Amino acid sequence: LSGFHQVANSQLSLFCIEYLNELGFKIKKKDIVDGLKKVKWEGRLEIVEENPSVILDVAHNPFAFDVLFRELKRFYPEKKINLLIGVLSDKDYRKIVKISSGNCSFAACVKPAIKKGLEPYILRDLFMEEGVPSECFDSVVAGYDYLKSISEREDVILISGSHYIVGEFKRNYKIS
Fold first, then answer.
1. How far is CA 9 from CA 40, 70, 77, 149, in A?
2. Rounded to two decimals, what is the model's pTM?
3. Each residue's pLDDT tens digit, 143-156
4. DSSP 69-135
5. Of 48, 78, 103, 57, nearest in space to 155 by CA
């Protein structure tokens, strides 16, 4: 698992296992170690390509975006981040844009393929108000292809905003 915040998540898991053992469950140390070695969480700081780095993250609320950008700054200091984003209309998208604006150079805005997907022009307008160049795209594929065309080898392309956006990317680019 990538990200310092995953250390805290792992610690919580260990506390839960300890409590279960106190309740009479028999969870062996070897099984715990093996489990922690094998755990994989797709769509969380998932690097799927290099040069430029393409990262998938299903962050979909302000807290998750704050943690995401904190980790990206740790792993990719001084790198330009181009963002492909699509969020649901019931999320706090104004705060998400505010957090993202301070961390990205360009926002490619798309609508998640679900009824409550937020129209991309709303995101675009909010990013523009924050001074971040932005454009709307009809699909994740179109937005990603555009970001690939403007990104340098040393840049980061971040695909985020919802499980739907990351899922659409994976379906179209056959990433497992």
1. 13, 16, 24, 36
2. 0.80
3. 999 999 999 999 99
4. HHHHHHHSTT--EEEEE--BTTS-HHHHHHHHHTT-SEEEE---SSTTBPPHHHHHHHHHHTT--EE
5. 78
